[in-house]
# Entry
Amino acid sequence: MIAQQIESAGITGKPKNLEEQAIQLVGTDIYRKLIAGYTQKQWGKPPRELPSFIIRRLPIRFTYDNNYFNHRFQGIPEGGYTPIFQKLLDDDRIDVCLKTDFEAEKAAYLARFPKIIYSGPIDAFFDQRYGPLEYRSLRFETTKHPSPNFQGNPVINYTDEKVPFTRSMEWKHFDKQGESDTTILTKEYPAPFTIGAEPYYPINDEKNNQLYKKYKQLAAKQPQVLFGGRLGSYRYLDMDQIVSEALKLAQKELTAN
Ligand SMILES: Cc1cc2nc3c(=O)[nH]c(=O)nc-3n(C[C@H](O)[C@H](O)[C@H](O)COP(=O)(O)OP(=O)(O)OC[C@H]3O[C@@H](n4cnc5c(N)ncnc54)[C@H](O)[C@@H]3O)c2cc1C
# Structure
């Protein structure tokens, strides 16, 4: 069935964009129903204008296993991520400065600290010297409902392009939070990135990747600063990858000094 659909869509050889890649993976029916509209609203661009690797991040299975990833261990830490950070920061020697823009304080930090780990946008660090990298942003709408249960599960994805949000999260289902007569729901709306908005997703198309390479070369000349994380390395990374990269970076630094 899928082979026939790929053939009738006239796709041969290496996929040139997300649309071709998706059709090669799942055929035209599933592509149209689940992927085309969702991708358009998520990225604000037609799937034909997006790189094929975006869709390869998602595992395709022809089984009843409805997990997002194929990892052996999956889930979120008990109590969420907050207790991990509380314990990491529970040390009098660590100052936490909230609501402080790194860029505004950059010169003072560079003069004061011999080593800086920077997880903000790499282009912002260099004052967008070669031009801005593109990002995709999000808007969240959170509502409280007078009911013990709203949608019955943690996440529902809305694949129809006419629905303006991509997914709705009902937080109580992520973790065992005890009984409650109310529930909190968040809808996630994709949004264009504008200065001042949160840059959630790097747009790793050819143009932006080439621009990122130029910033990476600048970063290599600045050994005082270690660029890391999703924005510092201009790559989409999941939590497990972020933690792994942070540990590797720390190990490398500690063994080098
Ligand atoms: C909507 C969404 C859903 C996700 N769901 C999952 C999931 O289900 N599973 C999973 O594994 N991963 C998920 N991820 C990915 C996960 O959130 C990231 O891998 C992780 O947060 C990246 O960590 P980071 O430290 O690189 O960046 P971030 O967590 O984004 O941290 C960077 C921080 O730097 C701050 N910052 C930026 N610029 C400045 C500045 N100039 N001055 C001061 N501070 C600044 C930002 O405000 C931010 O707090 C999701 C991501 C998003 C956006």
